[in-house]
Amino acid sequence: MKNFIGRKSELEKLNKEYDRQSSFVVMYGRRRVGKTTLIKEFIKDKNALYFLSTSELEVKNRSRFLVSVADFTDMHYLKNSSFENWYDIFDIIAKHKPEEKKIVVIDEFQYLVNSNPSFTSIFQKVWDDILKDNNIMVILCGSYISMMTTQVLDYSSPLYGRRTSQMKLKPLKFSEIQSGFSNLNFKELVNLYAVTGGVPKYLEFFDNNLGFFKNIEDEILDKNGFLYEEPTFLLEKEVRETMTYFSIIQTIADGNHKISKIASSLEVPATKLTPYIRTLIDLSLVEKRIPVTEKNPEKSKKGLYYIADNFIEFWFKFVYPFKSELEMGNTDYVLNKIKNNLIDNHVSFVYEDICKEQLVTRAKELGLLVSKIGSYWDSKVEIDVVAIDNENKKLILGECKYNNKPMNDSVFYNLIQKSHSIKGYDDYEKVYILFSINKFDDRVKKLSKERSDLLLFDD
User: Fold this and answer.
1) pTM of the predicted model, to two decimals?
2) Domains with residue ranges and CATH for the chain
3) Residues forming beta bridges with residue 306, ordered by sequence position
4) Are strands 454-457 and 382-389 parallel, antiparallel or unpaired?
5) Which of 136, 139, 181, 408 is deepest in the core (most CB within 10 A)?
6) Percentage of the chain with pLDDT > 70?
7) 296: helix, coil or strand?
């Protein structure tokens, strides 16, 4: 995947900010998620100064920034100049062709804050005194979510209240990657998405010309592979006590989703886990799920915790537990484990999330207005997909099957039985949707023609 794909809504948001007299956009998100690529796509036909901060002394960053300004303004003599503060450099940008709209991008902003903790205060003054009234759009971009949150977005930050927009960039949706891999069939795309999680940089390293498992072997299982230590790098940049966070994620990957079970497995009080779980949620690595039918979700005691990132979940299920074997070079052993367990233990669950996305994407053409979507469970019953249409008073119930044979009608009749467990929506019309990775048998197809409340989704 080399071409730019997806990000339609993000580009629309950036263009809306561009149309303002002046704007201040904060963009952040995990490493490799495509922030820089999005920015470069946005500014490619605009008058923009792009600067990439690096992990070096402030004076070095300032000198390189001055070189970028010299090139941007065609004042090449500035390259031989020396400035002791940032204000004068930004003042040059503001006064250069003031009638023209300009964009100033500072990428990896966290490195400037690392080199000088007062830099947020410096930039606050730069924005207030120089940039905000000069037809300039500023984009501050950072990869360390925790730092960008505390140093830029938090109430205590000097920059609080200056931004006109903030964007937390997430991995691509399943529907967005389809256009980038047109040579793959639907099932192959599901498998790819289940492992890479839609992270653009990960997708780049999966060679379309190689087999799916060969890519896993080369990029994830090989000690020299690009993604072999990726989760370690992610967490080390964001948190202290990395081992504690690793242990929590591993425990969830092992199938412990209740906070009490996670705590019991780690032999610590549940209350001690709360701040760690909250941090993992802020980093979009873990999410709390509650049955979508709960009327007061914030008070619900049915919350379960799941890994929110497909690649992270894959890595903790199939790489981290076998690190000893991989370090010894026993790649074939681990690869066989993956081949034998990937579908049942990982891909089939990711497929449920894809089905939810498909339903939301096609809701309008189906005459539905989805207010909420998720799943339902109680002590006896689980329903993969449940969506609520409050406007039309419809309850949409779905089952997803990643099987090697067409789905039969028993799934539908079982879904009807399970639907009786949902309380509080007796006056809602029920709509049933079956999702199958491998088509439907003739009886199901016949049922869908006979019943207006049954819809079929495949590839």
Assistant:
1) 0.91
2) 8-168 (3.40.50.300), 176-352 (1.10.10.10), 363-457 (3.40.1350.10)
3) 287
4) unpaired
5) 139
6) 100
7) coil
